[in-house]
Amino acid sequence: MPRIAYVNGRYVAHADAFVHIEDRGYQFADGVYEVCEVARGFIVDMPRHLGRLNRSLTELSIDWPVTRGVLPIIMREVVRRNHVTDGLVYLQVTRGVASRDFVFPAGTKPALVVTARKADPAAAEKKAESGIKVITVLENRWDRVDIKSVGLLPNVLAKQKAKEAGAQEAWFVDAEGIVKEGGSSNAWIITRDGVLVTRPAEHGILRGITRTTLFEVAAKLGLKIEERGFSVAEAKAAREVFISSATTIAMPIVAIDGAPVANGHPGSITLSLRHAFFDVAEKSPA
Prior knowledge:
The chain is α+β, with helices and mostly antiparallel strands and 286 residues long.
């Protein structure tokens, strides 16, 4: 079956899904996005994702492209038309189409694109069983990374550098050697005492939706969380290390910059968080 995309009011074949060359997302990265996991026929944590979308739009003074109640209907329809039971649904909102000028255009209708694609949960579990590797890169992004903007060139370059190094993720590290977050994930460590540590999300990182839900998962499992910064050195000496995102859930890290974490294998606490996640997360029928 051909893939189907939603583009500005129309469901079209993915191969025929186009936006105007003067869409401000293309010209200026003047837009935001969200990615929701689809698991076992449910869209995971959709209300939280739409809440964060609202915040991103508000911070950039972009109007909703459709009413907030209509967007979940569109997302479900795209998932249905693509026959996605396990995978993801992606949505992007830009300020819209206007003659190229830096200032906000008047009266421009925001543009909306929604796509969905399948994923193999067995392949994801196999990856979690072996864990992944990360490298560290110096922070070089703009200050407002709390906005889920489509301006992701530093992330692209960091993740390409990771791939070339045989790793699967890159961590941005500030000038003091403190880990901020990954190119497309939040960063966590587990101390020798079994305490989960992740950086506060008030400033300097994106407040991950999966990160937020993992707080509830940890509470259910009786695990303690500390919101504080941690250094690369502390991460390398940790009991366990993992990343979180809508596409990875809790994914074990087994090496940082080529140095093994603990015994170089995924840890039991990270895997317990991963396996308990679906039962705790909010599930909206797709």
